[in-house]
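Summary of Year 1 activities. Much of the first year was spent building the evaluation harness for sequence design. The harness presents a backbone, in tokenized form, and records the residue chosen at every position. We chose the following record to illustrate the format because it has been used consistently in internal testing since the harness was completed.
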């Protein structure tokens, strides 16, 4: 699931890694593509390692400082959190993003507000 992938990215940035490999799933890939569009990571590409599909995540730094400062996982397997588009607010005065799972795919809070779509509030990142 995306929980493990997000925490792996945060830990790899704290350890100053250039990139990391995570197991492929369509949900993880969609979440990573949303992070690429918001410029929290440089790139996420699907790679074949033997018979296994993996995602290579290239991390992003700003003068040696990790771009991702913090992550707050909101919706968990034990407690799902759903929000309508009217309740979507900016994260950290616009410097962060909220990632949602909607009926039209994974998107950030600003895209969901523009399209007037609510969904499952996955996590916040800043």
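For this record, the design step produced the sequence shown next.
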């Amino acid at each position: 699931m995306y929980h493990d992938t997000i925490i792996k990215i945060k830990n790899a940035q704290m350890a100053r890694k250039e990139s990391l490999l995570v197991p492929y799933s369509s949900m993880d890939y969609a979440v990573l593509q949303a992070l690429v569009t918001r410029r929290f990571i440089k790139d996420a590409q699907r790679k074949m390692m033997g018979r296994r599909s993996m995602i290579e995540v290239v991390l992003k730094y700003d003068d040696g400082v990790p771009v991702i400062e913090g992550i707050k996982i909101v919706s968990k397997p034990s407690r799902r959190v759903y929000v309508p588009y009217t309740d979507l607010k900016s994260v950290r005065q616009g410097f962060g993003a909220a990632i949602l799972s909607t009926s039209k795919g994974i998107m950030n809070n600003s895209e969901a507000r523009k399209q007037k779509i609510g969904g499952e509030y996955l996590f916040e990142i800043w």
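The chain has two domains: 2-66, 71-125. Quantitative recovery figures across the full test set are reported in Table 2.
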